[in-house]
Amino acid sequence: MKRLQLTALLEREGDGYVSLCPELDVASQGANVEEALANLREAVELLLESASPSEIERRFHPEVIVSRFEATYA
User: Fold this and answer.
1) For residue 30, what are the domain limits?
2) Which of 10, 20, 58, 60 is the most exposed place for a label (fewest CB within 10 A)?
3) Is 48 contained in some domain?
4) Threshold 0.85, pTM exceeds
């Protein structure tokens, strides 16, 4: 069984959370952080199980950098 280390970005939206895996451009949502992450994992695993190797290769962008920065505005 193959394994990938992936990134999950979660953002509060309304009463729930949106989750995104930027390496594969897959998104999901949930009522709380744990549910949003579990739903994202399930969506990614379904993609990896059903997509052809060429589609996975086309979608997979392994060099994701997550950083924070400060912006100034008036």
Assistant:
1) 9-59
2) 58
3) yes
4) yes
